Amino acid sequence: MGKRHIRIAELLNEAPGQSVVAKGWVRTKRGNKNIAFIALNDGSTINNIQVVCEVANFPEELMKSITTGACLAVTGDLVESMGSGQKVEIQAKEIVVYGTADTETYPLQKKGHSMEFLREIGHLRPRTNTFGAVLRIRHAMAYAIHKFFNDKGFVYLHTPLITASDAEGAGAMFQVTTMDLENLPRTEEGKIDYKEDFFGKRTSLTVSGQLEGELGAMALGNIYTFGPTFRAENSNTPRHLAEFWMVEPEMAFYEIEDNMDLAEEFIKYLVQYALDNCMDDLTFLNNMIDKELISRLQSVVGTEFVRLTYTEGVKILEASGEKFDYPVAWGIDLQSEHERYLVEKHFGKPVILTDYPKDIKAFYMKQNEDGKTVRAMDVLFPKIGEIIGGSQREESYEKLTGRIKELNMDDTNLWWYVDTRRFGTAPHSGFGLGFERLLLFVTGMSNIRDVIPFPRTPKTAEF
Ligand code: ATP
Ligand code: MN
Hints:
Blueprint: E1 4-5, H1 8-11, E2 18-31, E3 35-41, E4 49-54, H2 60-65, E5 71-80, E6 88-99, H3 115-120, H4 129-151, E7 155-156, E8 162-163, E9 175-176, E10 203-205, H5 210-220, E11 222-230, E12 243-252, H6 256-277, H7 279-288, H8 293-301, E13 306-309, H9 310-319, H10 336-347, E14 351-357, E15 373-381, E16 385-392, H11 397-406, H12 415-422, E17 428-434, H13 435-443
Parallel strand pairs: 1-2, 4-6, 7-11, 13-14
Antiparallel strand pairs: 2-3, 2-5, 3-4, 5-6, 8-10, 9-10, 11-12, 12-17, 14-15, 15-16, 16-17
Helix pairs in contact: 4-6, 4-7, 4-13, 6-8
The protein binds adenosine-5'-triphosphate and manganese (II) ion.
């Protein structure tokens, strides 16, 4: 029998009676002076393979060095397991210790660390069950996003991360510069001379790929962009990151209703994909993190989202008799508490809210006949609040430039955007799904810092 290194995910489904090699990190070691049971995990699955060692067959020093966190290569026979919980286990013949992990200093000794503590050891937390599960689901969702759009014929358009248009109004931007901050070049009038900067103008990290996405849609029909976005918002909430990933489809010839249909189909597809492909990890999270996770996921795929206007939503909130921290009145930007009231208490299912007051939405949204509202749509989810923000875009050159003037926006770096309305303009729509907000929903985790490998938030950029 030849020896093969097989990942534990596959190994657990292999037939007993073969010689195998497993490699991974020790989760636990228990046993007595005759026999040791090692739970080995290689990240391919939430499940461990049990390695059984007859202590007498191995040098004492080697057995001692096998502690929680150590990395091993184990050669042995795959045999049927007598214990409960696994079909097969490895009867160890040979063990190589790739790396030890000192019991005194390895921080992941016992189970049950707080999420806060695990954030401090972001370099090691992927080795925990919870973060292993979250990161595998994160991967599966990224793959499913590409699959969904690819199957529909959308083109993946790579929009730039560095941008000179600071007029999107979506959030505060991080400036990008190579200038020496201790010694800034100045103009005659004493202002900072951005002509001397790398790009010859003031640039920032993008807050959204949408504006460039629209250029793509006006040529390719249906596109999506999926990449990192950056917002220097100093909001320390469990739903905001300074660096997060966003999925932004943009579709020519879509009106707001088509946009809503796509958003609803998209989220349901992703949740169903997780249910179909990530059940081991979801079951773990359901047991350990959120007892209602799987039933909540199932309920979302099986229900029709409620659609109503902002104005109707505000009426419901006003009539609710609920005491909100932020009082409700027509014209306010809804807070998460209001969104969650509608979704969790009033309707008990996801809600798509449309036709928001134009003053709380971006300049590019299609203006309604009433002169007060725009064709915006936010998809609101249980536990999260806003998960998607989108709109039909203003396609009229006059109305778009009129709005830019009305808002006193600096349009010097938007000439290319406005050009799409001069040359072959068309009705079109799009939306942005916050990838980590989706992951909060799909994993049941409660803080957005715990669904991205290396979170960036105010005052933290470790790892
Ligand atoms: P919010 O009101 O929650 O701050 P927003 O209105 O600023 O959201 P948009 O500009 O519409 O959000 O962005 C589209 C989507 O990106 C949002 O629906 C949300 O899912 C996600 N998102 C926005 N800001 C953040 C952030 N700071 N961190 C993580 N995701 C975000
Ligand atoms: Mn925001």
